[in-house]
Please model this.
Amino acid sequence: MVAAAAAEEAHHSVALEVGMAAVSVGIAVIGFLIAYTTYAKKSDRAERVAAQFKGLYQALLNKWYVDELYDALWVNRAKDLGRGLWRFDSRIVDGLVNETAAGTVRSAVGSGWWDRWIVDGLVRFAGGFVKTASWPIRLSETGYTQNYALVMIVGVLVLVGYVLWGTL
Model:
């Protein structure tokens, strides 16, 4: 029973709703007429009211300074944060990346020098040494069978000569 009474109290009559709508429309029409007579007909009413209520006029003209307050509290602080993060990124993060890259390049230059002059130099030296030391042997190593047979015959003759020379 109490719930039913509360539900009935919550409903307003149609006449009350129509009356409230009429008052709202009436206020809007009055505001439109005041604005029309003040601004569209080029009367001096706006200048007189602005001069009479100078502080209130400035506050209304600047929308109670809500935009300026919003800019000061949020927009400018977000810009400051963005600038700070940009400085951090450009100086710390990019600096670290750039220094790492420069260190890598220096390391690569040093490694390239070491590889070219020490490692490759030792390989070239070893190859050149073997090539130079093997020069006399390369003259006798021709790959022809008749040359090898000739060397064996000369060797046998030298050996026979040595043996015969030793017995005399």
Q: What stands out?
A: Residues 1-61 form one domain. The CA atoms of residues 116 and 122 lie 10 Å apart. The mean pLDDT is 89.
